[in-house]
C-alpha cells in the first residue's frame, strides 16, 4: 500500500457562538438545515446551518446539558443532563414537550432514538443502567438493563434489531425486541468509551481510553475483530461518527485532534487540530462538513471535508470496473463528462475513436459525443453522429447497435456484421416495442450468451429485459423479474434495481392517475418515493437514460408531485399537505423553487383551511393555510386566517408574526391590528395591545368603505373603556368583603381605597383582581391608616402579620380576615358581612386555615382533634371555598402537604371525613341551599360559637338564606328564625324530626341544634314485591271511590306554612284516647298511649301529661300526628329536576311528533274509552299504593290542644314510632291542618 500523507487543517470554516458556558454536545437534523447544541449553561441552542444564526435558545434543564439525540425524522430532540433528567423537545418549534426523571441524580452518558423513532435509549454512568422509553407515553418500556459498571455509550443498529452498549470493561449487544443479550466481548484493553455502527450494519466500531487510544472494527456476524486496531490518536477517543455515505469515519480525541479515516482501508486522510481536548464530533447530513467541540470551548467549530476525498470523486459504481465486457467504459473522458467538463478531453476522445474504429468492446454508447447528446436529451444529434460513424465505417456493428437504440432500422445490420451483447439487447428492445414479446424474450436469452457469465453484466441485462417487458405492457412479468433480482442477487447493484422499480412504479401511478384510480395511484407513487431518493440518480443509472430516454433527475420530485396530485384528487388534503412538506424539507433551494411552480392548489388549500377552521380543527387549518402560503406568500387574507387559527390554539407569538405580516401586506386594513391586539393580549403585553387596538380604531375611522367604517360603532375607545372597567370592577367587588387587607402595603382598605389601589396597579390593564378572604383578628386593634406589619406582633396581630406575608408571597394582592375586616360597631356592615360571608368564601381564590393548636411535630389525625373542627363559623370556612390550605401553629403546611389544594389531598380529606362524619365528596362538592336540610343540620349540630346567636348565623350561607342579624335575641330565637325560614321556603318537614327540648320560638322546633345530632330513626321499608302484594289485597277491601277521595284530598293539601312563630302543619291526626303513666322511671316520665287507628305505644318525656282514658276522659285534646310528606304520592318533584337548558336540550331539538305538531292524531272514539279506563286504573293503583305507604310505621309528633284550634308539641327524648292498626281503616277525617305554636 502506497504511503498516504494526511491533510492537516488548523482553521475551521466558521464557529457558532451563542452559549454562555462551554459546549458539551452537538447533533444535526436530517433536514440538512439545522443543528442543536447543549452546554454547561443548562440550555440548548437551535442553529441555522446556512446562515450560522441561532434560531432559538431552549431553557428547561437545571443542570449541564450533557448529551443530545435527534430522532431520524427530526420531530423530536432528546437532551440529558448531569442530574439524570431527560427533556423531550419538539423538533420543529423547540417547545418543551415533557420531562423524564430518567436516572435519578446521575449523569446521562448517552442517548439514542431507535430508527423507527418509537423508543429512546438512555444510559448513565453512575446508576450503571440502560433504560428504554416509549416515545408515545414516555413511560419505561420494560425493566432497565442492569449493566453493573459505567455505561459510556448506547446505540441502535441501522435496522433497529440490535442495541450496542459500551461499558467500562466490555461491549454488550442486545436484541432490542426481546431484551436478550446476543453477545458480550471485552473490546479494548482498558475502557470502552464510544461506539458506532456502519451504515449497512455489518461492522461495529469502538473506541478506547488513553491506555488504548485506538479504534477497533468488529464483524457483526461473528463478533470477531476485523484487521488491526486503527492507530493514530495518542489520548482517549471521546466520540466517533460515521459519514452519511458510509465511506469515512471521524473520531474526536483528548489529543486535541479530530481524525478523518477512510473506512475502506482504515487510513487517516485528514487531521483537524483544535486548541484543547476534543469531546464530540459529527458530520453534516450531506457529508460535506464536520462539527466538533473542544473542551471548555463556548463555540462549535465547523470544518470542510477536504476537496479531493469527497465520496463523489472516488466512489465507482459496482458495474463500472475495468473488465473487457463492462457496459460503460471508465476512462478519463468519462470522468470528465460526469463532472460536467464535456469539452476538456474532446480531442483525446476523438483520438480514441479514430484509432480504434473496430473497437469490439460491448459498451453501450461509451463516452462519445453521441452518448453525451443522448444524456442531454438531444436524440436527433445523437442519431446524426452515429450515422456519421456508420458512413465512415460501414462494418462498425457497434455503431449500428447504438443507433438502433434510437431507431430500430439498423439492429439487424449490427447483428449481421457481428452478433454481440449490444446487438441482441437492441433487438430485444425493438421487438418489445413492436409488441412481439415472445421474440423479444428469445433475443434477450441470446444476449445472455455474450455476457461471459459476468454476474454484473447479466444483472444489467436482466434489468434492461424487465424494462423492455414493462414497456410492452407485461407489467406483472417485469415486476416479478425485478423482485427476484432484488432478492436473489444481493451482491449486485441493488441501487440500480431500486431506481428501475421506482421508475416503473411512477409509470404505473401515472396510468392509474389518468384512469381516475387515485388511491391506486397514491400507492404506486408512495412505493416509488420509498425506493428512490433525490441524490445522484443520474450518475448511477446513466445507461438507462441512454437506452430508454428516461429523465431520472426529476424522478423523485415527479413521484412526490404526482402523489400530491393523487391525494388532492381523493380529498385527502391533510395527507397531501404532509407529502408536500416532506418534499420541501428534503430538497434544496433550487428544487424548492421548482416545487413552488408545481401546483395551482392555493385556492383549494385556502378553502380547505377555511372548512377546517369552521369545524374548529385549528391544527389542520394551520397546516392547510401554511401550504397555501408556501405556494403564494402574498395573500394577507391567508395570513389573517392562519393568525386567527393560531390565536385559537393560544400560540400568541406565532399569531403575532402572522398579524404583522397582514399589516405589512395590507397597511390600510384594520384586520392585522385587530389580530395583533388579540395576540399581544394573550401574550400579556398589555401596553402594546392597547396601542395596536388604538391603531385599529383609526384604520376603521379612515376606511373608504362605508360598511367598514360602520364597524367602528361596535367598539369603544380606551377612555370609554375605562368607565366600563370601573363599573365591572365595582360589580365584581360587590361579591367581596367591604374591607380588605392590601398584602403589598399592609394597609386595611375600605371600598374606595380598594378601587383606587386597583386603578394604579398593573392588574388594572388586564382586568384581573385577586381577592383572598382571611380570618381571626380584632378590628379595634387596627386603624385603617395603619400598616399592620408595623404593629407589635402580639396574639392575633402576629397571626395577621404572618397571614399577610403568606398571602403576599402566594401572589395575592388582597386578603381578608373576619375578625379584623368587619367593623362590628357598624350594624349595617355586620349585617351585610354575616349574610355575604359564604359568598365571599365561595368567590375567594384561596382560603387559608390557621390551626393554632396543631404543632409542627404533630402527627396525622391532629387536624381531626383541632379546636378549629369544633367551631361553628369554620364549617362554612371549609365547605364554601374551592381551594383551601391548612397551616400549623408555626405557619408551616399541615403534614407538609404541598399540593395546591388540600381539599384534593386524599390524606387530609380522609381525616376530615372521619372527624366530621361527612362523606368527603359531599365536603368537596358542597352546594348551599335547602336540599337535605336535616342532614346539614346534623353536620352542624355539635359545633359551638362564642356568641350564642352565631350558631344560627353561621348557617345562613349554608342554607342560602338572607335574614336580619340581631345580636342579643338569644340562641333559641335565632335558630328558630332560621328553621322557620327553611320550612317556609322549602316545605321540607324533615327538620321537625328531632328529639330533645322544645324551643320557646315554636314547640315544633328544638331549643338547641344539638337535638339534630341523632340521625333520624331508620324505619323498615317494603320491597316492591311486598308493596304490590299489599296493593292487590287492598283491591278486594277498599272501594275505588274511598281510595280516590283519600288520594285527592292529600294531593290537594297545602305545603306547611311557617310565619310569625306559628306553624300551619298539614298532617294525618290520630286522636289519643288514653294516657297512663308507668312506674319505675325516675329520670323521665314514661306513658303508655292509645290512639284511634294506631297500635299502642310508649312515650318518654320530661313533661307531665294528664292521665285519662275512655272511661275517665279529659277535655284537653291530644293527637299523635303524621306530618304530611308529599313524596308519598309518588309524583315527580319538578323543583329537583334539571331544566331543559341543564339537559342540553332546546325546543328546537324536538321533533314535530314530540312537540305536538300536525302529525299528532286525535284518538278515535273507540280508543278513547280504553284510554280512560287505563288512566282510571293507574290512578286507582297509585291511590292504593299510597294507602300501603301510610300503613307503615312512621315518626309521630305528640301535640296537645292549647286553645281552640291551636296546639303545642310535647317534646320527647326518644323517637315516637307509631303504626296504624289497619291500612284499610285510614279515614279522610284524620286529614287536617293544625296550627302549632
TrEMBL record:
Alphabetically ordered keywords of this record: Repeat, TPR repeat, WD repeat
Entry annotated with the keyword Zinc: no
SUPFAM superfamilies in alphabetical order: TPR-like, WD40 repeat-like
Repeat (TPR) residue spans along the chain: 602-635
Keyword Zinc on entry: no
Repeat positions for WD: 16-57, 58-99, 230-271
Chain segments carrying region Disordered: 1145-1173
Pfam families in UniProt: HET, WD40
InterPro entries named in the record: HET (IPR010730), TPR-like_helical_dom_sf (IPR011990), TPR_rpt (IPR019734), WD40/YVTN_repeat-like_dom_sf (IPR015943), WD40_repeat_CS (IPR019775), WD40_repeat_dom_sf (IPR036322), WD40_rpt (IPR001680)
Ranges of compositional bias, category Acidic residues: 1145-1157
Source superkingdom: Eukaryota
Residue span, Heterokaryon incompatibility domain: 799-858
PANTHER family per UniProt: HET DOMAIN-CONTAINING PROTEIN (PTHR10622)
Protein name, per record: Heterokaryon incompatibility domain-containing protein
Natural source organism: Suillus plorans
Phylogenetic lineage: Eukaryota, Fungi, Dikarya, Basidiomycota, Agaricomycotina
Amino acid at each position: 500500500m502506497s504511503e498516504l500523507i494526511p491533510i492537516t487543517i488548523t482553521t475551521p470554516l466558521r464557529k457558532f457562538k451563542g452559549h454562555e458556558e462551554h459546549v458539551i454536545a452537538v447533533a444535526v437534523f436530517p433536514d440538512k438545515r439545522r443543528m442543536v447544541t447543549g452546554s454547561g449553561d443548562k440550555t440548548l441552542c437551535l442553529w441555522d446551518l446556512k446562515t450560522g444564526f441561532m434560531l432559538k435558545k431552549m431553557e428547561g434543564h437545571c443542570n449541564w446539558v450533557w448529551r443530545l439525540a435527534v430522532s431520524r425524522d427530526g420531530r423530536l430532540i432528546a437532551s440529558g443532563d448531569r442530574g439524570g433528567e431527560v427533556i423531550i423537545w419538539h423538533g420543529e418549534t423547540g417547545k418543551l414537550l415533557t420531562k423524564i426523571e430518567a436516572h435519578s441524580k446521575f449523569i446521562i452518558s448517552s442517548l439514542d432514538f431507535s430508527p423507527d423513532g418509537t423508543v429512546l435509549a438512555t444510559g448513565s454512568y453512575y446508576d450503571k443502567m440502560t433504560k428504554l422509553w416509549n416515545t408515545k407515553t414516555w413511560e419505561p418500556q420494560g425493566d432497565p438493563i442492569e449493566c453493573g459498571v459505567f455505561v459510556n455509550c448506547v446505540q441502535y443498529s441501522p435496522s433497529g434489531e440490535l442495541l450496542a452498549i459500551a461499558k467500562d470493561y466490555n461491549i454488550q449487544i442486545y436484541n432490542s425486541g426481546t431484551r436478550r443479550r446476543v453477545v458480550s466481548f471485552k473490546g479494548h484493553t482498558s475502557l470502552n468509551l464510544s461506539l458506532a455502527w456502519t451504515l449497512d450494519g455489518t461492522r461495529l466500531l469502538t473506541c478506547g481510553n488513553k491506555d488504548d487510544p485506538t479504534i477497533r472494527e468488529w464483524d457483526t456476524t461473528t463478533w470477531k475483530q476485523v484487521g488491526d486496531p486503527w492507530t493514530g490518536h495518542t489520548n482517549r477517543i471521546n466520540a466517533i461518527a460515521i459519514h452519511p455515505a458510509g465511506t469515512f469515519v471521524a473520531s474526536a480525541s483528548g489529543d486535541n485532534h479530530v481524525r478523518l479515516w477512510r473506512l475502506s482501508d482504515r487510513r487517516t486522510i485528514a487531521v483537524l487540530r483544535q486548541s484543547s481536548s476534543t469531546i464530540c464530533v459529527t458530520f453534516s447530513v450531506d457529508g460535506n462538513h464536520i462539527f466538533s467541540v473542544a473542551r471548555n470551548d463556548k463555540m462549535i467549530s465547523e470544518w470542510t471535508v477536504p476537496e479531493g476525498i469527497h465520496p463523489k470523486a472516488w466512489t465507482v459504481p459496482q458495474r463500472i470496473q475495468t473488465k473487457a465486457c463492462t457496459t460503460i467504459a471508465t476512462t478519463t473522458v468519462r470522468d470528465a463528462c460526469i463532472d460536467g467538463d464535456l469539452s476538456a478531453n474532446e480531442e483525446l476522445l476523438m483520438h480514441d475513436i479514430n484509432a480504434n474504429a473496430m473497437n469490439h468492446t460491448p459498451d453501450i454508447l461509451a463516452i462519445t459525443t453521441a452518448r453525451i447528446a443522448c444524456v442531454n436529451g438531444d436524440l436527433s444529434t445523437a442519431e446524426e453522429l452515429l450515422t456519421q460513424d456508420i458512413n465512415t465505417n460501414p462494418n462498425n456493428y457497434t455503431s449500428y447497435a447504438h443507433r438502433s437504440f434510437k431507431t430500430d432500422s439498423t439492429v439487424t445490420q449490427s447483428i449481421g456484421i457481428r452478433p454481440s451483447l449490444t446487438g441482441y439487447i437492441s433487438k430485444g428492445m425493438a421487438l418489445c416495442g413492436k409488441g412481439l414479446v415472445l421474440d423479444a424474450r428469445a433475443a434477450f436469452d441470446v444476449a445472455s450468451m455474450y455476457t461471459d457469465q459476468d454476474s454484473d453484466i447479466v444483472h444489467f441485462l436482466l434489468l434492461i429485459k424487465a424494462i423492455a417487458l414493462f414497456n410492452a405492457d407485461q407489467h406483472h412479468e417485469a415486476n416479478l423479474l425485478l423482485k427476484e433480482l432484488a432478492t436473489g442477487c444481493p451482491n449486485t447493484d441493488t441501487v440500480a434495481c431500486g431506481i428501475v422499480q421506482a421508475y416503473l412504479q411512477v409509470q404505473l401511478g401515472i396510468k392509474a392517475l389518468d384512469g381516475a384510480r387515485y388511491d391506486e395511484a397514491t400507492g404506486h407513487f408512495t412505493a416509488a418515493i420509498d425506493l428512490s431518493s433525490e441524490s445522484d440518480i443520474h450518475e448511477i443509472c446513466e445507461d438507462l437514460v441512454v437506452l430508454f430516454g428516461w429523465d431520472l433527475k426529476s424522478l423523485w420530485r415527479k413521484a412526490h408531485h404526482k402523489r400530491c396530485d393523487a391525494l388532492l384528487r381523493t380529498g385527502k388534503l391533510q395527507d397531501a399537505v404532509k407529502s408536500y412538506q416532506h418534499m420541501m424539507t428534503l430538497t434544496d433551494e433550487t428544487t424548492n423553487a421548482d416545487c413552488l411552480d408545481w401546483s395551482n392548489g392555493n385556492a383549494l388549500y385556502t378553502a380547505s383551511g377555511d372548512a377546517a377552521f369552521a369545524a374548529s380543527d385549528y391544527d389542520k387549518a394551520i397546516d392547510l393555510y401554511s401550504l397555501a402560503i408556501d405556494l403564494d406568500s402574498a395573500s394577507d387574507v391567508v395570513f389573517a386566517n392562519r393568525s386567527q387559527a393560531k390565536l385559537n390554539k393560544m400560540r400568541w407569538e406565532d399569531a403575532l408574526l402572522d398579524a404583522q405580516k397582514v399589516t405589512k401586506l395590507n397597511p390600510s386594513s384594520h384586520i392585522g391590528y385587530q389580530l395583533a391586539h388579540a395576540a399581544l393580549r394573550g401574550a400579556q403585553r398589555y401596553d402594546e395591545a392597547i396601542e395596536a387596538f388604538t391603531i385599529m380604531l383609526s384604520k376603521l375611522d379612515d376606511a373608504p368603505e362605508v360598511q367598514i367604517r360602520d364597524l367602528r360603532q361596535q367598539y369603544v375607545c380606551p377612555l370609554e373603556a375605562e368607565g366600563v372597567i370601573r363599573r365591572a370592577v365595582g360589580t365584581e367587588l360587590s361579591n367581596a368583603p367591604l374591607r380588605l387587607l392590601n398584602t403589598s402595603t399592609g394597609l386595611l382598605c375600605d371600598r374606595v381605597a380598594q378601587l383606587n389601589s386597583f386603578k394604579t396597579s398593573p392588574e388594572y390593564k388586564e382586568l384581573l383582581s385577586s381577592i383572598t378572604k382571611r380570618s381571626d383578628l380584632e378590628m379595634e386593634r387596627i386603624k385603617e391608616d395603619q400598616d399592620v406589619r408595623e404593629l407589635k406582633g402580639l396574639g392575633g396581630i402576629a397571626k395577621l402579620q404572618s397571614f399577610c406575608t403568606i398571602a403576599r408571597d402566594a401572589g395575592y394582592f388582597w386578603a381578608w380576615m373576619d375578625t379584623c375586616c368587619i367593623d362590628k360597631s357598624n350594624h349595617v356592615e355586620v349585617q351585610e358581612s354575616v349574610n355575604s360571608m359564604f359568598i365571599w368564601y365561595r368567590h375567594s381564590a384561596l382560603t387559608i386555615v390557621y390551626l393554632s393548636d396543631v404543632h409542627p411535630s404533630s402527627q396525622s389525625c391532629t387536624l381531626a382533634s383541632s379546636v378549629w373542627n369544633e367551631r361553628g363559623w369554620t364549617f362554612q370556612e371549609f365547605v364554601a371555598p374551592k381551594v383551601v390550605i391548612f397551616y400549623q401553629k408555626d405557619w408551616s403546611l399541615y403534614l407538609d402537604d404541598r399540593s395546591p389544594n388540600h381539599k384534593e389531598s386524599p390524606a387530609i380529606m380522609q381525616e376530615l371525613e372521619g372527624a366530621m362524619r361527612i362523606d368527603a365528596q359531599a365536603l368537596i362538592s358542597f352546594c348551599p341551599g335547602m336540599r337535605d336540610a336535616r342532614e346539614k343540620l346534623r353536620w352542624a349540630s355539635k359545633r359551638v360559637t362564642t356568641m350564642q346567636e352565631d350558631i344560627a348565623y353561621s348557617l345562613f350561607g349554608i342554607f342560602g338564606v338572607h335574614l336580619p342579624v340581631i345580636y342579643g335575641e338569644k340562641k333559641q330565637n335565632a335558630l328558630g328564625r332560621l328553621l322557620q325560614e327553611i320550612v317556609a321556603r322549602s316545605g321540607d318537614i324533615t327538620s321537625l324530626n328531632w328529639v330533645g327540648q322544645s324551643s320557646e320560638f315554636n314547640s315544633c322546633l328544638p331549643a338547641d341544634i344539638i337535638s339534630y345530632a341523632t340521625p333520624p330513626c331508620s324505619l323498615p321499608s317494603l320491597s316492591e314485591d311486598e308493596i304490590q302484594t299489599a296493593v292487590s289485597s287492598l283491591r278486594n277491601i277498599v272501594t275505588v271511590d274511598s281510595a280516590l277521595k283519600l288520594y285527592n284530598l292529600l294531593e290537594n293539601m297545602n305545603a306547611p306554612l311557617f310565619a310569625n312563630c306559628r306553624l300551619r302543619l298539614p298532617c294525618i291526626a290520630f286522636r289519643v284516647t288514653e294516657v297512663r303513666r308507668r312506674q319505675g322511671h325516675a329520670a323521665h316520665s314514661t306513658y303508655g298511649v292509645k290512639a284511634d287507628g294506631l297500635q299502642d305505644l310508649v312515650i318518654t318525656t320530661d313533661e307531665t301529661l294528664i292521665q285519662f282514658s275512655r272511661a275517665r276522659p279529659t277535655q284537653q285534646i291530644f293527637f299523635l300526628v303524621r306530618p304530611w310528606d308529599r313524596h308519598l304520592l309518588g309524583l315527580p318533584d319538578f323543583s329537583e329536576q334539571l331544566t331543559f337548558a341543564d339537559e342540553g336540550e332546546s325546543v328546537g331539538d324536538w321533533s314535530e311528533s314530540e312537540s305536538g305538531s300536525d302529525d299528532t292524531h286525535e284518538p278515535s272514539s273507540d280508543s278513547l274509552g280504553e284510554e280512560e279506563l287505563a288512566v282510571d286504573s293507574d290512578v286507582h293503583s297509585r291511590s292504593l299504593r299510597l294507602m300501603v305507604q301510610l300503613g307503615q310505621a312512621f315518626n309521630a309528633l305528640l301535640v296537645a290542644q292549647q286553645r281552640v284550634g291551636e296546639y303545642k308539641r310535647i317534646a320527647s327524648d326518644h323517637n315516637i314510632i307509631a303504626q296504624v292498626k289497619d291500612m284499610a281503616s285510614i279515614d279522610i277525617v284524620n286529614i287536617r291542618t293544625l296550627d302549632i305554636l
